[in-house]
Write a structure and sequence with these properties.
The complex is a heterodimer of chains A (150) and B (245). Chain A contains four helices and six strands. Chain A is of the alpha+beta class. Chain B is mostly helical. The chains are: A alpha+beta (150), B mainly alpha (245).
Chain lengths: 150, 245
């Protein structure tokens, strides 16, 4: 073995071992690397989590209710394809918050199984286009908000 | 191309190429910013805030590109013991770190109006922060080790191991639920970004790439000159020490 092929072997081995280590760590962390649970993840848990949790999904259309009075409490459903969870939140909502939008809320579960949120974050998707194009595509029925590719 | 591997030839080439690279960068930045700020539409969802994309996304591309270039130079430098590759890797680090910091700062400024937060510990944001620390660590290794040959060897190994983070950053948004949205441009089924917004984004991307080559040529030439000075000093010191003792 020449010195050069020994060096090639050394870095290949080092990179291989380090990749394996990274793979193992990431597999072990799989649950906790995810930034949020979805409502179906939550439903699949054997026992509801007691600490602070993050829940993400789409704001269910027609579910947003603002409480009467001046305390600015809002209630809405976060849903994915199969399950949905009620969220109550008191505070300022981000600009992108609206029905059908992806959001991530942080809070605790109450006794009724609803999330009492202390923070509401809006997600935006990877589709970018001018408003006129979006309107035209919607009018032609070729694309709907929330779909990735027009 | 292979001729450039000679440090003196590279120095001549870089000296000639730097003004062209700088002029190209300046031209593309002016053109790109004009399109980005004045001649491109607002987004249907994000409104005018989408314009932050034109400075944020190319910075993030360059953050990954610089690290990849650094890792490639490190492999060449480590296996073939080529000093120019060591110089290239060393000179890339601060530029990559600057692009990473720019991506983190502009991302934070974009996150506040869109997501509602300056920072979130999601997989994409966290892995990019780790990338920034890896650049800093790499530079610290170079300055901590006196002997340049040894420094090059150890820094190269650290850089190559750290390359694992690059695919993690790229695919973090696909592998895990994250606040950051998935890729819009470099994806298997083609871009999901309208051509009127893709044009300024790509112009800014090329502008950033030319900023990188300009800074790289300048800093590699400085490093080569420093090494030459160190060699000359060592050579002039050696005989006088002999005559004193």
């Amino acid at each position: 073995m020449t010195k050069r092929s020994r060096r090639i072997f050394l870095i290949s081995a080092l990179f291989g071992v380090a990749s394996l280590a990274a793979l193992l760590v990431l597999t072990a962390l799989k649950g906790s690397v995810a930034y949020f649970y979805t409502p179906s993840d939550l439903a699949a848990l054997a026992a509801p989590p007691t600490g602070i949790l993050r829940l993400g999904g789409l704001v269910a259309p027609g579910s947003v209710r603002f409480a009467d009075g001046s305390d600015a409490t809002v209630t809405f459903l976060i849903s994915d394809e199969t399950a949905s969870t009620t969220v109550t939140y008191k505070g300022v909502l981000p600009d992108l918050f609206r029905e059908g939008q992806g959001v991530v809320v942080q809070g605790r579960l109450n006794a009724a199984g609803a999330v009492v949120a202390s923070e509401v974050l809006a997600k935006h998707d990877e589709t970018y286009m001018p408003k006129e194009v979006a309107d035209a595509l919607k009018k032609q029925g070729r694309w709907q908000e929330g779909e990735t590719k027009p | 191309m292979y001729d450039l591997a000679n440090p003196d030839r590279f120095d001549r080439f870089a000296r000639a190429a730097t003004p062209w690279s700088a002029a190209g960068a300046l031209l593309l930045i002016v053109l790109g910013l004009y399109f980005a700020l004045f001649n491109s539409p607002a987004d249907y969802q994000q409104g005018e805030s989408v314009r932050i994309m034109y400075v944020h996304v190319p910075a993030a591309w360059m953050a990954l590109m610089c690290y990849s270039a650094m890792a490639l130079s490190s492999v060449i430098g480590f296996i073939w013991k080529h000093p120019l590759a060591d110089v290239a890797a060393k000179s890339t680090a601060p530029i990559g770190a600057a692009f990473t910091l720019l991506a983190l700062i502009t991302g934070s400024l974009w996150g506040k109006p869109m997501w509602g937060t300056w920072w979130a510990w999601d997989a994409r944001l966290t892995s990019v922060l780790v990338l920034f620390f890896m650049y800093i660590g790499y530079m610290a290794l170079w300055s901590a080790i006196e002997d340049k040959t040894r420094a090059a060897r150890i820094a190269a190994l650290a850089c190559i191991v750290g390359f694992i983070n690059v695919p993690i950053i790229k695919f973090s948004v696909d592998w895990w639920n994250s606040l950051h949205q998935p890729a819009s441009v470099i994806r298997a089924d083609g871009p999901t970004i309208h051509s009127s917004m893709l044009t300024p984004l790509l112009l800014m991307g090329f502008a950033y790439a030319l900023v990188f080559t300009t800074l790289l040529f300048m800093s590699m030439r400085t490093e080569l000159a420093e090494r030459r000075i160190a060699r000359l000093e060592a050579a002039s010191r050696a005989p006088s020490q002999v005559s004193v003792t």
